[in-house]
Design goal:
Helix content: 40-55%
Distance between the termini: 58 Å
Number of domains: 1
Shape: globular
Radius of gyration: 15 Å
Largest sheet: 2 strands, antiparallel
Number of helices: 3
Length: 69
C-alpha cells in the first residue's frame, strides 16, 4: 500500500521564525504589525506558506529598490 504524505497547510509563528532565521519575538512583532500576514485560530496564530513567501519577496524587492536608488 502506498504511503500518503500530508503537507502542512499552516505554519506556527515559531516555525516561521526558524525558517526565516529570526527570533521568536521578532517574528511575533512582524505578525502583530501585519508585516507577515496571519490568521488567529482560537488562541493561536497560523501563517500560510504563501504569506511567508510574500514577506520574503517584499523584503527582497525593497532591498533591490534601495540599492538602485
Amino acid at each position: 500500500m502506498p504511503s500518503v504524505t500530508i503537507q502542512r497547510k499552516w505554519h506556527t509563528t515559531a516555525e516561521v521564525a526558524e525558517m526565516l532565521g529570526f527570533s521568536l519575538s521578532k517574528t511575533k512583532m512582524l505578525v502583530l504589525t501585519g508585516e507577515i500576514r496571519s490568521v488567529k485560530i482560537g488562541r493561536n496564530r497560523r501563517i500560510l506558506p504563501d504569506w511567508v513567501d510574500e514577506y520574503v519577496s517584499r523584503c527582497a524587492s525593497e532591498a533591490i529598490a534601495g540599492w538602485s536608488a
